[in-house]
């Protein structure tokens, strides 16, 4: 009989990243189907890429991504890490499903939906919570062991970039992918697996 394995899973997300959104929804589907301890953590494409030379459109995307990430950091300090699940869902539903790129409007609506103080919206244009944001970002990078983009998935302390998905797996597909990732996470010798991906719009 196969050993029961109920891991702790940390999903590191940048609210602006569509790939992180899909991965996070997959992990919520896994959580619905089997016991895992799923935690949401902030990382930041703006922090990751702040000193890199980027194409103009991607530089603009990264510069705008500061706002929602900073608000998540402020919300975590205000209400604890548990708030990130609902706040991320409120932000991501508007940004990625509703395709609303007006972050001021999105942030205000998401804070209202989750019962957080509207004053937290001010964090989007402030550096007050940048130290906390950078620390959370660094924790995710340390779990992977090298610089990596979003999403990051950490299974019982072992981190990987991805999985990068173009659609949300459901049911048996969701469970099968998670079983594969959990198996990989136990193998110290495993380093990387990659193939071409379908493009998603970032801007």
How do the helices and strands line up, and which of them pair or pack?
Elements: E1 8-13, H1 18-33, E2 37-42, H2 45-49, H3 56-79, H4 83-97, H5 103-113, H6 130-144, E3 152-155, E4 158-161, H7 171-185
Provide a descriptive summary of the structure in words.
With 203 residues, this protein is α+β, with helices and mostly antiparallel strands. It has one domain: Glutaredoxin, CATH 3.40.30. It has helices at residues 18-33, 45-49, 56-79, 83-97, 103-113, 130-144, 171-185, and strands at 8-13, 37-42, 152-155, 158-161. The chain has a four-stranded mixed β-sheet, with helices on both faces. A hairpin with a 2-residue loop joins strand 3 and strand 4. The longest helix has 24 residues, at 56-79. The relative contact order is 0.19.
Quick structural summary:
This protein has 203 residues and is α+β, with helices and mostly antiparallel strands.
Give the number of domains.
Answer: 1
Largest sheet: 4 strands, mixed
Q: Residue ranges: pLDDT <50 for 5 or more in a row?
A: none
* Residue fraction in strands: 5-15%
Protein traits:
alpha+beta, 7 helices, 4 strands, globular
